[in-house]
Each structure stands twice: as C-alpha cells, then as structure tokens.
Specification:
The protein is α/β, with parallel strands linked by helices. It has helices spanning 18-32, 80-104, 144-154; strands at residues 6-11, 38-47, 58-66, 70-77, 141-142, 159-164, 169-175, 181-184. Helix 1 packs parallel to helix 2.
C-alpha cells in the first residue's frame, strides 16, 4: 500500500471482509501509481437490495485528493465489485486526462477542487426549506478554462464555484441544457 491514507467506507448492507479490502487496495494502487502528491483516497461502497434496477443496487465512489486537485468517480453495478470496476475505469480516464493536460501546457494558476452538495428536496410542500448540510472549501485562483476542466474532472454536471484569477472574484460556472457553459459573475448590490 502507498504512503497516503486510504479510507474505505461501507454503507447499507456492504460487509467489509478481507477479500473486498484486498480488492479495493489493489484497484487503488493501480490507479494512483502514476500520480504524485496524493493527500488521501476515499472509497465509498453502498449496496441497496431494494433498488429499482438490478444494475443500480451497488454504488462505488472513489475520491482522490491531491495537493492541487480532486478527482471523483461514481458508478453503479449489480454488486460492489462491478461498481468498483466501473468507477475505477472512469477514474483511470480522468487521471489520463489530467496527465495529458499537464503534459500539453503548463498550469497557469493553481487548480482548485471544490465540492458543493445540493440541498435535499423538501419533505413536504408546506415545509419551508432548511439547510441540512454546510460545506466549506478553499478557493484557489484559476481561469475559466481551468474551471471547465476541473468541473468535468470532478464529475459535476450542473455547476462549479471557483475564484476567477482574471477578475479576482468568485464565479459560478454552470452547464446549460444545450451542452454549452454559462458563467455567473455576482455583484454586490
């Protein structure tokens, strides 16, 4: 095992045993051998036997945190091994993309990895919305192009908050229905 902390979290009917732990460790070692400056790796495994589709019963999410970036992949399968294999394949493509991007051009600004959780749906229509989770994260300056790449690397498909190095302001990048991107540049009233 490498010199970074590996956290394996199991939820909902996933029994951690030696076979599963070894399998996860082998997958993660294979994924991260070409990365440097890894701070931590987290693997979340969930199994829900009551899922609507058999292929959605198991979920594996891999999060790799580095000094200047976060990569995340989440996939589903009929068992935790299949879900983990699929998530590892997605993560491998993201790692290759990061390595290719860094080889093509130097990084202009430090990359940021920000994760925002969406509020849970209202339990009842009459109930006022409530904040169920708060998230804090460090903002590192980057340009709009880097924000688009980071948004895709994180697997965010709706929005991404970043500190725009060109304007020295916090911006929100969002994906439009037609596949293009929009940028929100807030102003104080």
């Amino acid at each position: 095992m490498s010199d970074f902390p590996l956290e394996i979290v199991t939820h909902e009917d996933v029994q951690m045993n030696e076979r599963l732990r070894d399998y996860v460790e082998r997958k993660i070692d294979r994924l991260v051998r070409s990365l440097s400056n890894i701070a931590s790796v987290r693997v979340d495994l969930t199994f829900n036997p009551a899922a609507r589709s058999q292929d959605d019963r198991a979920r594996a999410q891999i999060t790799i945190r580095g000094k200047r970036l976060i990569l995340r992949a989440e996939e589903y399968g009929d068992d935790v091994f299949t879900a983990l294999d699929r998530a590892a394949d997605v993560m491998e493509r993201r790692i290759e993309r990061v390595k290719g991007r860094r080889a093509r051009r130097p990084v202009k600004h430090a990359e940021i990895a920000a994760e925002l959780m969406e509020n849970q749906l209202r339990e009842a229509a009459e109930e006022p919305p409530r904040i169920v989770r708060r998230k804090r994260f460090a903002l590192v300056p980057m340009d709009e192009e880097e924000a688009v790449e980071q948004m895709e690397l994180l697997g965010h498909d709706t929005f991404f908050v970043f500190y725009n190095a060109r304007t020295n302001q916090i911006n929100v990048l969002y994906k439009r229905r037609d596949g293009t991107y929009g940028l929100i540049e807030p102003e104080l009233a």
